[in-house]
Design brief:
- The protein contains 13 helices and no strands.
- The protein is an all-alpha fold and about 280 residues long.
- It has a single domain, classed as MetI-like fold (Orthogonal Bundle).
Length: about 280
């Protein structure tokens, strides 16, 4: 060994095995997305070929879905619905979570248990009641109905996770701020919310993704193609007698890109929020 050379770093067999397993699992989960990309670039006359890779790639399917379908309008609807329902959930969940975390009122545990139980309700089982209710309110086939429905089904999770996160923040910090002359709302905005930011981001990203991926309510509560969310718009591309799978997979790739980018940007906040309170 030459003088001055550092020690050779060696990996234990267990570390190598874990790394190989992790890469294998990552490849397994990424394989469907690779298949989607390959199929989106496959020419229409090669869709029934047995080969994994086409003879040549043709990316015109990405432009065709924008030109020949309502994908653009569906994408706008989904952005409005996901953003609106997330904002509505945040406006309602933050005060509710703060109150349940800071005030020991009678029936507090029962309220939190009720919030948790509502997570067990499936949207499919409630579609008839929801349809009748929104029909009475004359809200069917509107973007507002999707915002309200998605916010209702994601509110319980947001209250639960925000309540647990705010409860882990020492109340003495708020009391110190109030001694300095800050009111309760000021202490909430200047002290509690900045410290609870990972929990808030976690609630936001999970609500946004759930609203983005929702299908059943969009299919049931809307009928106009230009007012339906992206998931329903992609489903409408599957015809009764023929399916252009390259265009379907191209639209699916367009649908997942915004969520992947958003999650990659705030992933560290999500991990911090999910592990909140796990260490005493």
């Amino acid at each position: 060994m030459e003088r001055g050379a550092g020690p050779v770093k060696r990996f234990a067999p267990r570390t190598l095995l874990l790394a190989a397993t992790a890469w294998a699992l990552a490849a397994l989960f990424l394989l469907p997305y690779v298949e989607m990309l390959v199929t989106a670039g496959r020419p229409a006359d090669e869709l029934r070929d047995n080969g994994y890779l086409p003879g040549h790639f043709d990316w015109s399917s990405f432009t065709a879905v924008w030109r020949d379908t309502t994908l653009g309008q569906n994408l706008q609807v989904t952005l409005v619905v996901a953003g609106g329902s997330t904002l509505l959930v945040l406006l309602v969940a933050l005060p509710a979570a703060y109150y349940t975390a800071r005030v020991r009122f009678r029936g507090r545990k029962a309220f939190l248990l009720l919030v948790l139980v509502t997570q067990m309700f499936q949207p499919t089982a409630l579609q008839v009641g929801l349809y009748r209710e929104f029909y009475t309110l004359d809200l069917l086939d509107t973007i507002l109905v999707l915002v309200l429905a998605n916010a209702a089904f994601n509110l319980a999770f947001a209250i639960w996770i925000l309540s647990a996160y705010i409860a882990a923040i020492p109340v003495e910090l708020e009391e110190a701020a109030r001694i300095d002359g800050t009111g309760r709302l000021g202490a909430l905005g200047r002290v509690t919310l900045p410290l609870a930011l990972p929990g808030v981001v976690t609630a936001v990203i999970f609500t946004f993704i759930a609203s983005w991926n929702e299908f059943i309510m969009g299919l049931t509560l809307t009928t106009s193609p230009d007012r339906q969310p992206l998931t329903v718009g992609i489903d409408n591309m599957i015809g009764a007698y023929s399916v252009q799978w390259n265009q379907v997979f191209a639209a699916s790739l367009v649908a997942i890109v915004p969520v992947v980018v958003l999650f990659a940007v705030i992933e560290r906040h999500v991990v911090s929020g999910l592990t909140a309170g796990s260490v005493k």
